[in-house]
Write a structure and sequence with these properties.
Blueprint (H helix, E strand, L loop, with lengths): L1 H22 L5 H23 L9 H24 L2 H7 L5 H9 L6 H17 L11 H22 L5 H28 L15 H24 L2 H8 L2 H13 L5 H19 L1
Helix pairs in contact: 1-9, 1-10, 1-11, 2-8, 2-9, 3-7, 3-8, 5-7, 5-10, 6-10, 6-12, 9-10
Length: 285
């Protein structure tokens, strides 16, 4: 079951990233983040009220608050890195954050078997290659590398924090609600600061009302991915759940191939194949 929920996480995150990438072609990235997460907060709020999730409130919610503070910082650093440097470097490098939840699992006493260790190595290599790493070209700015690493370890930290934020289904809804409740104003402040620096918050034709369904999908898919990851981490080894959940760049690349007819480079196709092999090894182990 761990493998199933973790793979569902990678599918949802991959599709959310694909949708977010399409939306940011017309709408500023920070606006996409704030609007999509605001929709997610509204839906989660209704779920929490309907399920009586407030009864699960406790000290563990501070993990959700921390995840809500770290998440937007990581996302902003990631978008900034994408703006400064080649995506072929930033995208695969951004997956190294999986080291955080894997490290937490090891510290908690998890010891993957030999087959799983091999599966982890193969899957991580596959994800890096699926991002289409840029092996030649102009030197990458040191600032780009630094921002990407901050983003990567920020995402990994959110993985680890949200897994500790709840132990029941109703508690999970509440934790995800609190996380997004913190993320939205944090992202809003970043958007306000961006506007103050003279950058546009909306497209030239105004608020993207026609994109609301897509924005809702991005926000809700992201929330659902967090939820399935928590279930995966609670039902099995965090080391396995984290690596399988980090396969989302493969999903994004395949979605671009299927919907936009983007051709996969040879290195990307090889990476997708290795990621699949690593998945099988992890599930078998």
């Amino acid at each position: 079951m761990t493998a199933l929920f973790a793979l569902a996480t990678s599918l949802l995150w991959g599709l959310a990233d694909f949708g977010g990438g399409l939306l940011t072609r017309r709408t500023p990235a920070l606006t996409v983040v704030v609007v999509s997460q605001t929709i997610a907060v509204a839906v989660l709020g209704v779920i929490v009220v309907a399920t009586g999730g407030w009864s699960e409130a406790g000290p563990q919610l501070w993990f959700a608050v921390a995840a809500g503070l770290v998440g937007p910082v990581a996302l902003i650093c990631f978008y900034k890195a994408l703006a400064l440097g080649p995506m072929g470097v930033v995208s695969p490098l951004g997956t190294v954050g999986v080291a955080v939840p894997v490290g937490v699992g090891l510290l908690l006493g998890e010891r993957p078997g030999l087959v799983q260790v091999v599966g982890i190595a193969v899957a991580v290599l596959g994800v890096v290659l699926a991002g289409g790493p840029q092996l030649r070209g102009a030197p990458v700015q040191r600032q780009t590398i630094l921002l990407t690493l901050v983003a990567a370890f920020g995402f990994g930290t959110v993985f680890a924090l949200i897994a500790e934020a709840s132990s029941t289904v109703n508690g999970l809804f509440l934790a995800l609600f609190v996380q997004r409740l913190v993320e939205v104003p944090t992202g809003g402040l970043a958007l306000y600061a961006s506007v103050r620096r003279g950058r546009a918050a909306l497209p030239d034709d105004g608020f993207p009302w026609r994109s609301l369904p897509a924005l809702a999908f991005v926000g809700l898919a992201d929330v659902a991915a967090n939820g399935t990851y928590v279930v995966a981490a609670q039902r099995g080894p965090v080391t396995v759940a984290a690596v399988l959940a980090s396969l989302y760049p493969v999903v994004t690349a395949l979605a671009a191939r299927g919907f936009l007819r983007e051709r996969l480079r040879t290195v990307q196709a090889a990476g997708a194949g290795l990621a699949l092999v690593g998945t099988v090894l992890l599930a078998a182990g």
